[in-house]
């Protein structure tokens, strides 16, 4: 059995992108997470130590996005998944990375990449 914990809309400001101006000026990225884990131990104990601390996880994910500029959102999404899977209770992580201000010469509402990684596959 796998339960799901979702954290959506984590706002980050970072300097990722293929173009020099993206690395120089930076832009907003948004992160949505869904984590697969068993929450029965936490439900029984009512103790934060028995579950994923989503407050500290959010801080760690934000830091991972905002460090070390890279070219591709694929690289950033993998970095986020790796952070989520550091907690051994997380069986899988679904990461959606939004780049709403991607430099595209067209009217659009969002660019988003979603990846799913399981323990041992990242």
From TrEMBL:
Dihydroneopterin aldolase/epimerase domain location: 5-117
EC number: 4.1.2.25
Protein origin, superkingdom: Bacteria
First-tier enzyme category under EC: lyase
Pathway: Cofactor biosynthesis; tetrahydrofolate biosynthesis; 2-amino-4-hydroxy-6-hydroxymethyl-7,8-dihydropteridine diphosphate from 7,8-dihydroneopterin triphosphate: step 3/4
GO MF annotation list: dihydroneopterin aldolase activity
Transmembrane intervals: none
Name of a matching Pfam family: FolB
Annotated catalysed reactions: 7,8-dihydroneopterin = 6-hydroxymethyl-7,8-dihydropterin + glycolaldehyde
PANTHER family: DIHYDRONEOPTERIN ALDOLASE 1-RELATED
Function in brief: Catalyzes the conversion of 7,8-dihydroneopterin to 6-hydroxymethyl-7,8-dihydropterin.
Keywords: Folate biosynthesis, Lyase
Gene: folB
Name of the featured protein: 7,8-dihydroneopterin aldolase
Protein family: Belongs to the DHNA family.
């Amino acid at each position: 059995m796998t339960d799901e914990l979702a954290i959506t809309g984590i706002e980050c400001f970072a300097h990722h992108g293929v173009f020099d101006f993206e690395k120089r000026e930076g832009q907003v990225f948004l992160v949505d997470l869904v984590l697969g884990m068993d929450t029965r131990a936490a439900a029984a104990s009512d103790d934060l130590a028995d579950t994923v601390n989503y407050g500290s996880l959010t801080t760690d994910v934000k830091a991972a996005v905002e460090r070390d500029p890279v070219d591709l959102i694929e690289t950033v999404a993998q970095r986020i998944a790796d952070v989520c899977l550091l907690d051994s209770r997380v069986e899988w992580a679904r990461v959606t990375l939004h780049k709403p201000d991607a430099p595209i010469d067209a009217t659009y509402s969002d660019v988003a990449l979603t990846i799913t990684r399981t323990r041992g596959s990242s």
